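Summary for the steering committee. The consortium agreed at its last meeting that each partner would contribute one worked example illustrating the joint modelling workflow. Our contribution is presented below. We chose a case with several input lines so that the handling of multiple components could be demonstrated. No manual editing was applied between input and output; the record is shown as generated.
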Amino acid sequence: NLNIHNIQFRRSMLNNRMRNPSADISGPSPLFEDTSTGSPPGGHRGQDKGPVNYPGQSLLSDPMSNLAMAYGSSLATQGKEMMDKNLDRFIPISKLKYYFAVDTLYVGKKLGLLVFPYMHQNWEVSYQQDTPVAPRFDINAPDLYIPVMGFITYVLVAGLALGTQNRFTPEILGMQASSALVWLIIEVLATLLSLYLVTVNTDLTTIDLVAFSGYKYVGMIMGVLSGLLFGRTGYYLSLLWCCLSIFVFMIRTLRLKILSEAAAEGVLVRGAKNQLRMYLTMAIAAAQPVFMYWLTFHLVR
Amino acid sequence: MAFTLYALIQTAILLTNAVAVLHEERFLSKIGWGADQGIGGFGDEPGIKAQLLNLIRSVRTVMRVPLIAVNSVCIVLLLLFG
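What follows is the complete predicted structure of the assembly.
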């Protein structure tokens, strides 16, 4: 009788506890309640053969193991917090989240902008109290979603293209991926170095540069796909189109970030400093078609 | 043309070693790239040459000690694994 009451009492306490998990439990809410009723005699750690309660709960009702469980879960939470804090020092996770705040509409418009940037008028990134607006709300903001997806799709399309020429082995997928990644890293480092040498005061972060360098994968994928469908002519034509588009896109985007405000209006300011910056912008933009050709020509026969 | 990440690391180590072995007074001063010859006036723009000299000097100062460790690790690994 006492047993049944005990079980029902426990069950109701369990449901109660599970319904409001934001109680004083730290970490994952343990599926037991702490009760001091019906504890086994002595303070020994509960074995399976608890005398009063049904087996399985005897371990959990022992106050010693209760304490141990609570301590263990609080330790786990502390460890998790410390690891998060340390990881945040190396890889800025909160900043990365900004670059992935996209939605379908943004992705569609941005892809359209990458292949046809000629009609777009306003290339300024809008700010909201000194922080840039999330990409979801501003089409000019750089994001990392398209570059990452483009990179993965490029590797898959490269495998597909090599497969149609009977040159496919599973190892070359890894080789293509690491080659493209290495070229990306080299390009970002070269851009960083040249930005440092020209002492340009810009708010371009490294992740912004990775994003801008990753936009060319879209053009590469289109080139290779049309090369697969229409042969070499199709490849060259679509590659030419995408190269021009990416060139114009990069120039119009980087002009606002690298050049000073006067030159960005379109007024050609004569001065060694602005001329150098213009050359730098054009060099960065011209490197994109070169890389696009270099990374795809061996895929299309 | 197939680059691996390991090739990139090797390139980085070799380039950093190359910058670190440039001797200050035997070489850099002779060609006018010494540490005291880069600081021009106190105008607003340092200019490319000053930036480059600054970069070389800071790389040499910062990377001296880590390069010792990295080179030793590289030597051991190359001896063991060819």
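Chain A touches chain B through 15 residues (CB under 8 Å). Residues 83 and 89 of chain A are 10 Å apart (CA to CA).
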